[in-house]
Structure prediction request, 486 residues.
Amino acid sequence: MLTILGFAMIATFLVLIMMKKMSPIAALVLIPALFCVFVGKGAHLGDYVIDGVSSLAPTAAMLMFAIVYFGVMIDVGLFDPIVRAILKFCKADPMRVVVGTALLAAIVSLDGDGSTTFMITVSAMYPLYKRLKMSLVVMTGVAAMANGVMNTLPWGGPTARAATALKVDASDIFVPMIPALAVGLVAVVALAYVLGLRERRRVGTLSLDDALVREPETETETVLVGAGASGGASGGRSGAGANAGAARGGAGTGGAGEAADRDAGSEAESGDDFKGLDPNRPTLRPKLYWFNALLTVALLTAMIMELLPIPVLFLIGAALALTVNFPRIPDQKARIAAHADNVLNVSGMVFAAAVFTGVLSGTGMVDHMAKWLVDTIPDGMGPQMGLVTGLLSLPLTYFMSNDGFYFGVLPVLAEAGQAHGVSTLEIARASIVGQPLHMSSPLVPAVYVLVGMAKVEFGDHTRFVVKWAVLTSLVILAAGILFGII
Prediction:
């Protein structure tokens, strides 16, 4: 019964948010509360929620201060050179923009943290998608998949969890998987190319003049991102993109943008002049560039070396960044206020997700679901437990947390594999192939940073990304089998 109710609860949640019948926060809170009553454990709901909140509170704290820290770094211009290089490559070509999104997300993912990857990627690319009238779910989908492939880095989380759960070395899992993961990353870039071509056909082949056409006065969208402004309206199409549909409204928050009300063609003389950053925003601190760069490198190094808990590192980093870059207290308050919307939205979503995970774990639903899935594996599939583990990693890491899968399910799969002569390392390697899909799971706090900053509905993102993320994961699995890794 708990197995059926567990799957029913997840299905109800996904259907309601994809049909936009409930907001994600409301669904994350109300649906598990209702199912907790169905299970007959309504009296323990408070305990389950407190347990869930306690387990996710460090994540919420990390996200809060990470948003402030990286928001300030974007404000002061730390990422301007990277953004300009990507935008110079993209120019006004939708295909290049989507490929650039995949490349930027993959590069920034080297820090091992999905939230920071999404903040930087969306901040850089959002203005370009808006100006070219491109689909924002393409941006969020490609960024999530690229980050999912890179999330398998030993310091990214899943590989370390698999190594800990099975008592093997993380490098023995990751290093042999590099060729398969490289194929997966190439698949993401190839998919970005195809999606980019589709976007090019949808909006038309835009010239730089088209991209910079002045919006009607009644629908002027002013984006002063980097100075922390937010707002905007849905702009009408013009030029070659006139029939492509209305653009999603809203200015980026905490990202990199430029004023959209400049005269048409004022920067049309050269593609190199098309920038996604306002070079004159008052928050720039060019004299402190190397201090900010060294502070960020030190922060990421300390995070990788685990010198302190990540929430503590970002708390200290945010305090230092604010104090040094904006010594005046009113300026510090202004920077915090500029990024407050993102902080509130993301932290609120994390605590709402704590209700969902708390009920799933506390009622025993997640344990019964995992046991049922493992028990359904036919005995004849024993020698193919590597393939089975890889396939199971897709739905299981999507419907439950990485901790639940790697510490609860993976040891059982590894034991079953050993009984049929399949090595523990093979099982461990197969277990990480579902990460491109996992990064869009409603139980991953970072995905709310992605959709929140991109002004995309979570249901829209889910509908778009799931099929492509599954395909990417299957490509990695197939490459692992082909290369004899799994």
Q: What stands out?
A: The chain has a mean pLDDT of 78. Residues 170-203 form the longest helix (34 residues). The two ends are 35 Å apart (CA to CA). The chain has 21 helices and no strands.
